[in-house]
Amino acid sequence: MAYLYGQSREQLLARLRRVEGQVRGVQRMIEEDKYCVDVLTQIQAAAAGLEKVGLHMLSDHIRGCVRDAVGTESAEAKIAELVGVVERFMKAKPSSTGL
Hints:
Blueprint: H1 9-31, H2 36-69, H3 75-91
Helix pairs in contact: 1-2, 2-3
């Protein structure tokens, strides 16, 4: 099965490589004992990049898999799956200071 995100695979991979570089940069900043606010700024940039990838994937899932399931026997299951994905995606937001 070809997934809809395959049409933008290179863009997604480029964004993920950029996030990967940002995370390595954050690691270096912590190793070098950089100023907390600067580290936090880079963490936010990496998180925003991942969120954009996630939103793109969610959008593609709705436009592809869910749309294709509407009107079929698997529609309810696909909608329940979508609701679960959205709930998990929303819970991914940091809610405490614990590691």
